[in-house]
Amino acid sequence: MAERPDITLACIQYEPLFGDPDRNLDAMEDRIRTAHDRGAGLIVLPELADSGYVFESPEETARLARPIPDGESAARLIALAWELGVYIVSGLAEAAEGVFYNSAMLCGPEGFIGAYRKLHLWNRETLFFKPGNLGLPVFDTPIGRIGMAICYDGWFPETFRTLTAAGAEIVCVPTNWVPMPDQDPGVEAMANALHKAAAHSNGIYIACADRVGTERGQPFIGQSLILDATGWPLAGPAPRTDEAILIARVSPGALAEKRQLNEFNNILGDRRTDVYG
Amino acid sequence: MAERPDITLACIQYEPLFGDPDRNLDAMEDRIRTAHDRGAGLIVLPELADSGYVFESPEETARLARPIPDGESAARLIALAWELGVYIVSGLAEAAEGVFYNSAMLCGPEGFIGAYRKLHLWNRETLFFKPGNLGLPVFDTPIGRIGMAICYDGWFPETFRTLTAAGAEIVCVPTNWVPMPDQDPGVEAMANALHKAAAHSNGIYIACADRVGTERGQPFIGQSLILDATGWPLAGPAPRTDEAILIARVSPGALAEKRQLNEFNNILGDRRTDVYG
Fold it and tell me: Is B196 annotated as catalytic?
């Protein structure tokens, strides 16, 4: 394997406005340019960043979802990635052959790279989107092997195990985290603990870009996070209510070393596949 | 299924003395009686609670490891469980047919119930113990279905997935957590985050009993923890250096309700077995 370069990640925590993709794409572009100015080479945006989150009718989904990569939201991000020479992962509402997915797209200087469709739908999303049907793809790029997961996907350890087994080095997580039942707002979000555990147990970098604000009565919790492959935060958690851009430098080339915990233990090699497959 | 009674758990965080099982069993008995006096019906003790942890030669293992259930350590705990009418899970150094395991035993008022042998050995343990060969058993008792895991087992999400799939309601974790690389001593231990994530993602109660103190230069980190099936602490984390007894009441009968996160989502039912088996 060619030596992997280091890469600067950015997570953009922002507040979309429901139902106004043009305004949202303007806001995303503004923050992507800022992240690029700060040296970012891979920029992650929240779930459903173009449409907003709280759909109330199938008509709204039909009006706001757009094809990937040929719809206006995807095309605008692809053009921006080309112009700036950066990689971008963003959550987007996707229309495909008459149905709709809660999706994420990866694009870069070379154009569209790939899409992911959220496997685990949360709550009333099930009324407006189809469950993902593209599995958990990993895309080999010049900056590393990149996987994507969206919000509630992170509640399932298999998400990260499967991406890691497929070679993922950096998992980008566009998300719209909501408060969990019994969450004490004064303590670390369960979402943060779940992703720390996933980064640590798999030896992968994880970049979670959450939104903030309250939409149609639904609050979101911020606390975006960029995690080292040891599970410790490299940047964040971001504030709970304010917009923010997190920046951290990661070294996909260092993963083999990080996964070797000591002379005897490798976090992936120690799996007892004879017991649990 | 008959209605499950509530049960009071105790985690005993204590400091064994290496190589002195008689002294350690006296100390364990003292703390088990205290936990019983405080209402505990299921009492969890640390990993290798009878022997201590930092073995330096095979001769030490041979001298200190004892059969389960017929050796002196196991027999003494079984007698105590019968006398007090409680369930006990303890880590023990096990001798079996000329080899040695880092094991845990479950016993109760009805006597010996079962043993577990640590699947994932940590660091120099590999020099003194064989990897576990009993899988991840779950024992159906009048107080609930109980699984066991030991220390580094908890670094593998499959441990808890497998126990949950086998019906575990309460997972008891005898442990000797050591500082992880890059651990900032001022922040929550990664071990705590890993078990919070496991309890939350599986909808199971988890009771981690750690040791404290420094043995032959190896520090241990305390921070024992009893977790609700939502992942939030019911008791602990205990102090980092002092002995402690954690007490919490749990309701195995409430697990079905806790696993149903809302009208649409069940933390176990939502798994995409079509994607990741």
Answer: no
